[in-house]
Amino acid sequence: QVQLVESGGGLVQAGGSLRLSCTASGSIFRFYAVGWYRQAPEKQRELVATVTSGYKTNYADSVKGRFTISRDDAKNTVYLQMNSLKSEDTAVYYCTMGAGLYWGQGTQVTVSS
Question: Which residues sit opposite 112 in a β-bridge?
């Protein structure tokens, strides 16, 4: 069973930056696409960004140009660098592996205006 552990969330002012990390257990990380989703209060969970095993990236339109997803297969870790944060980025951010096969527990990101 794969476990995903996120870190790096917190409280930041609008315009600031945060970097989220998600580390997977086991040895299959490098074979899977990984990504980040988020869920704001009373809203559905939505895609933020994904990166395939071949390092192809995909972003939600709302974060393009501000967020960058990357992966380090040697460390079984996927990152989400978030810059120019806005209040509407406030949400619980979830790491996922294998297109929803595995999920982390989530990390809260709060952006104050």
Answer: 13
User: Rounded CA gap, 50 and 96, in Å?
Assistant: 9
Report yes or no: 69 and 51 within 8 Å, Cβ to Cβ: yes
Residue 35: pLDDT above 90?
yes
Distance CA 88, CA 112 (A): 9
How many Å apart are CA 113 and CA 111, to the nearest integer?
7
- In DSSP terms, 72 is beta-bridged to 77
Q: Which two tokens stand for residue 42?
A: 């009373």
Give the tens place of pLDDT for each residue, 94-113: 999 998 999 999 999 999 98
d(CA 83, CA 53) in angstroms, rounded, equals 24
pLDDT of residue 99: 86
CA 33 vs CA 36, 48, 65, 83, 108: distances in Å = 11, 14, 21, 23, 23
Place of tokens 């205006």: 113
